[in-house]
Design brief:
This protein is mainly α and 197 residues long. Helices cover 71% and strands 0% of the residues. The chain folds into two domains: 71 residues, Rna Polymerase Sigma Factor, Chain: A (Orthogonal Bundle), CATH 1.10.1740; 112 residues, Arc Repressor Mutant, subunit A, CATH 1.10.10. The longest helix has 24 residues.
């Protein structure tokens, strides 16, 4: 466990990281600021709750997740869905053969444990999620990060179940393409490594 001063400093340092996730989900700067402030306050009020079994950021994101869910449920609002079918059809044509198999050779990806432990990979994944269209990114994070059910997503965003599944499918395709280029291809990884130096 960190001493009290360094714990407070580390919580304060995580603010921008938390704010980025909150803004992506809430699409409202004031609400995002509120849930991040509530998250930081909850963490600072009970520092003993942080047992050190995970990183501080992971623990804070766990708190933030529930604050965002509470905020979404408190502020029922409509969100317009924008589906760009032409662009996504082109993407599918690039990634898949006519028989439904992925285009190109199968890559030898590293083990999931090794990849997920890589801070650089998570940074690239964050960049790829930020590049998703607004509604698509929101639906993906609600499902995969916040663990909302399809029914909850439909109710919250005023979408049909088929729209949700289409958005999830397209988000996964785009993330796969982005990660392939920015992480798994040697050129992409070299570019990321070079920019980090």
């Amino acid at each position: 466990m960190l001493n009290e001063t360094s714990f407070q400093d580390n919580v304060a340092a995580a603010r921008n990281y938390l704010l980025r996730f909150a803004r992506l989900q809430l699409r409202n700067d004031a609400w995002a600021e509120d849930v991040v402030a509530e998250t930081m306050l909850a963490a600072l009020e009970k520092p003993d709750s942080f047992a050190g079994r995970s990183s501080l950021n992971t623990w804070l994101v766990g708190i933030l997740k529930f604050k965002i869910i509470d905020c979404l449920r408190a502020h029922k609002r409509e969100v317009a869905s924008s589906l760009n079918t032409d662009e996504d059809a082109e993407l599918e044509d690039l990634l898949f053969k006519p028989d439904g198999h992925f285009e190109g050779d199968a890559n030898q990806w590293p083990s999931p444990e090794t990849t997920l432990q890589s801070k650089q990979f998570l940074e690239v994944m964050d960049i790829c999620i930020q590049e998703l269209p607004a509604t698509m990114g929101r639906v993906f994070l609600m499902r995969e990060w916040m663990e909302f059910s399809t029914d909850e997503i439909c109710k919250e965003l005023k979408l049909s179940p088929s729209n949700v599944w289409v958005l999830l499918h397209r988000a996964r395709l785009r993330l796969r393409e982005c990660l392939q280029f920015k992480w798994f291809n040697n050129e992409g990884r070299d570019a990321v490594d070079g920019s980090a130096r």
